[in-house]
Model the fold of this input.
Amino acid sequence: MFWQLLRDYLLKANRNISMKARETRFSSQIAYFSQLEKEVESTVLNSDYIAYFDSVSFDYPSLEDTRELETLETSDILQFIVMLNHALAQYIDAFRENEDTTQKLYAFYELLKKEACSRIPSYPKEDGYTDYLNSRNERLEQKQKLEKARVEGNICVHCGSSDVRSHGDKWKCFECGRKFRKH
Ligand SMILES: [Zn+2]
Done:
């Protein structure tokens, strides 16, 4: 049942892909293809998972979910892992890791990873969820540091040098020579 939710999500996201990108999926113009393929990827993968998973109801993995998982195509499993990766990252960024929805999604993520590892021995075993959660403070600190740098011009956002001076409406770093916006 849960796997169907992921399929529905993909279908919904697919509808937001431009006709041009969709057509090109079947065309042989490779250069064009890769550019539009990026549009497909980002539309499907970077959309609002929180809005979706908050609006549907699902439970922790059941025996049926586990059984059905074994019948899924490997390519679906890999796609679902990427989707849940993005979804969980969004919930972590929203500080919602202790909520039921997040914990249920994590349980499905773990199931998928286990299945992927058993089918593909070289599949990375690292737990992306825990890793992303543990590095959240670091990410926030880094973000605040860069925001402060844009306001105060105390360090260069590119190389970290403190040799930064005002240059019109931008900051200019005299170490690496690059400029960055003031706010
Ligand atoms: Zn610099």
